[in-house]
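Follow-up to my post from last week.
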Amino acid sequence: MARSKAQIYTCCSLILLCIVVLIVCAVVLAKRSCQEETFASAAVAADSAMCSVIGRDILRRGGSAVDGAIAALLCTSVVNPQSMGIGGGSIFTVMDSSGKVKIINSRETVPKTFKADLLNGCPKTSQLISGGQWIGVPGEIRGYEHVHRLYGKLPWASLFQPTIKLAREGFPIPEVQGRFVSLLDSNDTLPLRKLFSDKNGKMLKTGDTVKFEKLADTLELVANRGADAFYTGKIAQDLIRDIQDAGGTLTMEDLAAYNVTVTDAWTIPLGDFQMHIPPPPAGGVMLGLILNIIKGFAADSSALKGEQKILTYHRYVEALKFANGLKKYIRDPQFSSDVMAKKFTEQSFADHIRSLISNNETHDLQYYNIAPHLDSMGTTHVSVMAEDGAAVSATSTINHIFGSKVFSPSTGVILNNELSDFCGRADHIVAGEQPPSSMSPVVMRSKSKTLVIGGSGGSMITTAMASVLMNHLWLGKSLEEAIAAPIVFVDSKNMLKFESTFDKSVVEALMALGHTQQTAKYFYNVVNAVEKEDGCIRAVSDARKLGEAAGY
Ligand SMILES: *[C@@H]1O[C@H](CO)[C@@H](O)[C@H](O)[C@H]1NC(C)=O
Ligand SMILES: *[C@@H]1O[C@H](CO)[C@@H](O)[C@H](O)[C@H]1NC(C)=O
Ligand SMILES: *[C@@H]1O[C@H](CO)[C@@H](O)[C@H](O)[C@H]1NC(C)=O
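User reply:
Got it. Predicted complex:
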């Protein structure tokens, strides 16, 4: 009897052991079943491999998606200082692990005092706009503080450590940074040129070691003492003095009074997907409108076959022209009505615009009700997905290349020129108002898929994202192919600008339909995205900025 009891015990233990082994195998196999170029747990798609890796390591150490995004953005502020930094602002679209989506907006604002005739100084053509008068109140660090308070898991200071080390010890100037440093010339401010010069005053170039020591000091103080160290006290005093020396109007009061706004995302149904976007003054509603127009024209890959491809691109370009005409309704909702912007998210409005698009012709500016405005450039984006399913889509900017080109020597901060985003889109501005933006950090979900996506490149953001989403969601391209696909950008005067590898036969056919084109010197469009489908994560950073994603 005793013996058989022992046998039963042994038997049960063995069965239990087998079950445990089977479960472990199933879990391991499920993870292994993801294809080689995908990740099983989490991923970060930033502008550069260096910053994607820093973000990934934060996730691996138990950080939240928000922790990963903040660390990757701080890193980007030294790897691509021409694009973004703590002297700028950002918009975070955050989906928590339960699927709830919030927007944390820390875009720059108009200071309390500003040049009365500021907008008279807007240039008539799209060009870099520099000078202290264009500096808006920077929100970047307040934004990080807020979003970290809501969603952070790791200590605040730990998110800064990798970047402080990079900034202090220096690193070889990456190719993209080097490209923009080489464009600095004697018209640019001495402090900014000195930042990128060696001891003998010679300008640095790609591969030379660059250090950001003053910035390292500032970041260390903010890491140890929190965001208040940036917005009040010694750093704030130094920063304001440097800004005023450069002709800026910001005061200590402006910094101290800066407020982050937290809102629910706006949600647009798009086929099987729910698309979560930041409300105005962000550009998400324009993106949603374009996609809703296109969806009625280009439902599957047959839209790219033969002659159909020309018609598809004609209609796509027409949709972009209408979007240009409607841009003027995107303003800070705290200062003007968002009734029109809300309308843009409605299916019936997209249907109406679609009915105004003909197959055989294009029209003059009047037809699209286009008010003159200017195109802009710059910015960065990071897409993050964490193990718990939470996702962050964050776009950050100092606006144009090197922002206002004002560098604060005593704090190491490069200041934005965000107020120039009002140019051509507003005839008066109000203290506290946020300029309109093309930034549209997006999180999209269907039953089987989550897509975290965003872009940089100023006015090119909307086009770049619309192109990727159209190609990926409907026209059968993989995420990688869709991001690599050459774009056609419609500028503020409705000129078409094609990336050099764009299908020449389509270009010719579009010209025959009456569109006009112009050669563009630079394309700033960059899209970084992370997608989760069937438990496997695909992360793609745009090769245009030599980006690379990281995950595990
Ligand atoms: C400085 O700006 C002026 C006016 O825009 C331009 O003509 C000149 O070529 C610039 N200087 C350099 C060194 O590029
Ligand atoms: C920020 O919020 C505080 C408290 O509500 C308010 O006193 C302050 O005026 C706000 N700042 C701005 C620039 O509106
Ligand atoms: C395009 O088609 C419409 C309707 O068929 C016609 O009225 C119009 O004249 C055509 N335009 C051109 C430029 O051929």
